[in-house]
Amino acid sequence: MSPIPASLRFPLGLAALLLVVFLVYAPGLSGDFVFDDFANIVANKKVHAEKVDLQSLSTAAGAYQGPIGRPLATMGFAVDHALGGRDPLAFKLHSLIVHLVNTLLVLLLCRRLMAIDGASTTPAWVPWAIAALWSIHPLQVSTVLYVVQRMEMLAVMFLLMGLLAYLHGRMLQIQGSRGWPWLVASGALAATGLLAKESAVLFPLFTLALEATVLRFRAAGGRTTKVLKAGYAAVVVIGIIGYFALFVPRFGAPAAFDNRDFTLQERMLTQLRVLPMYLKQVLLPLPGSMTFYYDDFPKSSGWLSPPTTLFGGVLLAGLLALAWALRRAIPLVALGLFWFFVPHLLTSGAVNLELAFEHRNYLAILGVLIATTAGLRKLRWRPSPEAALAATVAVVGMLAALSGIRAATWGDPLVLAMDMVARSPTSARASSDLGSIYARYAMAHPGSPYLDFALNEFQRGAKLPGASPLPEQGLILLSIAGGRPVQDSWWEQLYAKLRSNPIGPQEVMAVTGLLSERLKGTPVDDIALAEAYGILMERGGASAEAYLGFANHAENYLRDDALAERLYVAAMASDSMSPEYAQRVLFALATEGKQRFLDSAAREAVRRGLVDED
Q: Shortest CA distance to 139 belongs to which of 238, 11, 24?
């Protein structure tokens, strides 16, 4: 058999790698939407495009709230909806394609890094192994098949392209050629990533890690080296000032974490245990260690509460010290360690985010793999090249099997929900998912035992620590649909949670979900429903759209104009009310002749500066 021509080796190898990655994730393409997918996609009408045109894409570009929004991702969701409606298949397949592109980019980046570090001593298959391990790692399954995390994958895609452009430009400078255009292009690519997710803002820190390790600010001209060092010094100073001037005051305020059951200090301390957990999951991806939901992850309230907080802090400090110490002797080990920490600077910093999520490791996994590979190659004892390759193939095969099994679990909504509860029985979110799946099956198969399964799971989940009011919502709606009596205690439990829980998306969804079903004709108790959204009105935290929905119910179902008036005012007082939205609401009230509501809502809108007084 004649050897494969050199010109065909890379494309054939790439095709084989991408095929393996596709086959690993393919069993999960039949799965359903999960968790935040519902708020960002299923319930977000702005991405429900019927066809791909300028108008639908423009609408979708504004589907995510924020200073910039995430238009690249939301426009992609609109395209998916235009192609396949609300069937998750089109969405998941699109996400898998993005992951395949990122696999190629990771391969190219690793080849470039190995070439810079020393091509003569690095086997040609090492970059391929790193790319394979990164792309099929079991931890990646919950990113690739969790549709809303395409935001993260798109941001990483532009980061990777930016890093490749940056490396190319810097190598040109080291060789004495003109590399600045490539550096400018790298910045433009990273900036484009901001249109997918804010994590792309970390690009300068990724490149700073490159300079501190493999590049070392080298250039053929001394002036270029001075400019680079001065530029990065300015970036660090501006970054530190910006962080403490913007982020810390904003999230350090007493009310900044009112929607959480932890404080800023507790969050920061908990990250000293979360990051080591991530490291363990990357290096030892046992199925039982990856639960997807971490709402039951215990927070740290002090350095020794629990003691692993201090141990985790010592470990992380030791890894950072090791990276700094090895930045010249073994630069790729240092680079990999730095690249593990950089992606977590935002998600593990002083930002009001949840304590842990697996998708936060999407790019950080690459750093761990680079550091581990470079470290193994520096060991005094080395296996033969054949043995090293065979061991690597075995590890790749093992991870492919684990990921394939996990992907298959994600491919069946009921199996996934049951698996999540089995792995994390104290997770209120996992319980809520399982109860919802049972409820869906119960509605599709009247008279089946699924109705009792759902009611039992909702009752179990309602009692879990930190549970939201969603189980009570499920109990109420499912009992009505199944012809079972609605217990007064379920409403009382729902009220109690609305009064005591931090008001977050799940608390609001519990009430808006009841309202939505009432508007569809479900005989939900109007008085009980009004008491629920009255609590939300008193505590604040719901969106302007939710308050307007409550006002509609109070006006048309309860005939309580006084309550409706207060709700219109609450809508105008909501942080989510924009000037454009306020003007539309006021215009609608004026057109419908609802003068009482118009006057009160307009006064609040003027007070907040949403509209002019005249």
A: 24
Query: Are the C-beta atoms of residues 439 and 455 closer than 8 Å to each other?
Result: no
DSSP code, position 288: G
Domain boundary among 367, 388, 409: 409
Domain that holds residue 339: 7-409
How far, in Å, are 84, 86, 147, 156 from residue 90 at the CA level? 6, 9, 10, 21
The last residue of one of the domains, among 409, 435, 467, is: 409
DSSP output for 98-150: HHHHHHHHHHHHHHHHHHHHHGGGS-THHHHHHHHHHHH-GGGHHHHSSGGGH
Count of CB atoms within 10 A of residue 321's CB? 11
Q: Which of 163, 93, 609 is nearest to 367 (CA)?
A: 163
| Residue 495 belongs to domain with CATH number | 1.25.40
Helices (H), 194-330: 203-210, 222-242, 248-252, 264-283, 308-325
User: Any idea how long the chain is?
Assistant: 614
Contact, 299 vs 355, CB < 8 A?
A: yes
DSSP character string of 294-360 = -TTPPPP-BTTBSTHHHHHHHHHHHHHHHHHHTTTTSHHHHHHHHHHHTTHHHHTSSS---S--GGG
Q: Give residue for tokens 């684990």.
A: 402
Q: Is residue 587 in some structural domain? A: no
Asked if residue 503 lies in contact with residue 539, where contact means CB atoms within 8 angstroms, the answer is: yes
Grade residue 434 by pLDDT with cuts at 50, 70 and 90.
very high
Same domain for 195 and 301? Answer: yes
pLDDT tens digits, one per residue of 359-396: 999 999 999 999 999 998 887 777 788 888 899 999 99
239 compared with 218, residue with greater pLDDT: 218
In this prediction, residue 220 carries a pLDDT of: 87
Residues 447 and 399 in one domain: no
Looking at the fold, whether 545 and 434 belong to one and the same domain comes out as yes
Q: Are residues 454 and 436 in the same domain?
A: yes
- At 302, give phi and psi (nearest 5°): -170, 170
Q: Which pLDDT belongs to residue 256? A: 79
**Structural domain total, the chain:** 2
Radius of gyration of the chain (CA): 27
**Distance from C-alpha of 586 to C-alpha of 168, rounded to nearest angstrom:** 55
Same domain, 503 and 552: yes
* Domain presence at residue 152: yes
Residue 37: both structure tokens together? 């997918």
11 lies in the same domain as 49: yes
- Six-digit token pair at 403? 């990921």
Q: Look up the pTM and report it.
A: 0.91
Q: Give the DSSP H or E segment for 545.
A: helix 544-556
- Any domain includes 564: yes
